[in-house]
Amino acid sequence: MSTTVKGVIAREKNAPVELVDVVVPDPGPHDVIVRIQACGVCHTDLAYRDGGIGDNFPYLLGHEASGIVETVGAEVSHVAVGDFVVLNWRAVCGECRACRKGQPQYCFATFNASEPMTLADGTELEAALGIGAFIEKTVVHEGQCTKVNPEADPAAAGLLGCGIMAGLGAAVNTGEIRRGESVAVIGCGGVGMAAVAGAKLAGATTIIAIDVSDEKLARAREFGATHVINSASLPPAPDATGEDQPVVKAVHEILGGIGTDVVVDAVGVPATYRQAFYIRDLAGRVVLVGVPTPGMELNLPLPDVFGRGGSLKSAWYGDCLPERDFPLYTDLYLQGRFPLADFIDERISIDAVEEAFATMKSGKVLRSVVEL
Hints:
Elements: E1 3-10, E2 18-24, E3 31-40, H1 43-49, E4 59-60, E5 64-72, E6 84-87, H2 97-100, E7 118-119, E8 126-127, E9 137-141, E10 145-147, H3 154-157, H4 163-174, E11 182-186, H5 190-202, E12 206-211, H6 214-223, E13 227-230, H7 246-254, E14 260-265, H8 270-279, E15 280-288, H9 302-308, E16 311-314, H10 322-334, E17 344-348, H11 353-362, E18 367-371
Parallel strand pairs: 4-8, 11-12, 11-14, 12-13, 14-15, 15-16, 17-18
Antiparallel strand pairs: 1-2, 1-4, 2-7, 3-5, 3-9, 3-18, 5-6, 6-10
Helix pairs in contact: 4-5, 7-8
């Protein structure tokens, strides 16, 4: 029998979100109903609200979440009632061409719930990233649930569901940072800060954080940055290209005239990507984890692309495998070896999501977390 609960929706483009009644259907054979305990407020949710991802309104927002499995479908075997889980949007299928090549982190056919949630009048809701977790209970495919240590703070564990895993994975999985390497991270929001923390965890010895905010750079030091650069304070050089860019020069000065082994671009605009391309050392790795908006184009001299060698990568979800990574980083957090809870700046109620979007846009928080 379906259940009616309260959830946060974006009814139309750029309109304030609403807390409304949402009908959660009975789970299909491989679906589960999860009682949400906490859900982070992510930039992706704001992008849904503002029409930056699609126009299939209304959207049920929220996806960076943890909770307790409450009901399971008849053929569910992956989780059981009472399990504490972090939700994910990469429930690998095991059958697509990526999975068959042994690259499930790129799965092209991930699973979602078999039936949509709806408004009280029957209007179907598009769940953000196939989850929809600004809600008291949600329905997802069993593969979207990853069991983790129930001793973890739900607000902290849930952050692994998206942004923190994206930045952490960009450093550890995509960038493949090794002990003793040097790393630069451009952009110190939640994702960039997670990349800084990931670089420290991986054993990087020089970690350079780059941002336009002294406040964020101070926090980056707390997460492991050994050096910081406020790019807004550098002398302007509007015509500078290549290694003459002020940010590039500043990084190379720190390293005695060479570039870093790895650069993580957590901003995702052409200007920062060009900086990242030239900040890295010869044969270095560039990882793009900041999400570009439609219409952006990149111009780089092709001889430089060839001559500098190395690799240019994009990190999708931090190239994570939830079943491998979520339990691992939850345990490292509980052991005091990864500062997952330090990303939480405020804990809010479910009716404060719109205000949290405004706070996010102001750059004053790494994460606001809805607690239910």
